[in-house]
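Tokens help. One example:
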Amino acid sequence: MDLLLEHLSQGRYKKYPTTITQPFKLQKPLSKKKILRGIELYLEGNDSRAIILRDQFHWSVIIHADSQNLYFFDSSSYRKKARSRYSLRYEEGKLQLFPDGIYFIERGDVKP
């Protein structure tokens, strides 16, 4: 994913500037609550932002979050998932969060 996102920020894609960060990659200690609240705050009231999130099964694009759910742009067979379904550690029946697999993306102004 790092290589793909780096490629998209170079060359002909520079016309569509984006800022990409991994805010949880180096943070210690982390909790599920801190990550999910950070996601909610980042997306709150800003339609030029999205988050790419990795769980143990696939990558998803999150476009909205509230106190109960994460809402997805494209995520296999679901459009939303309850925050309670996530965990930082492997748990049967839960989706595992990987702090280094969370990318905050913000679209900049299109350059002519």
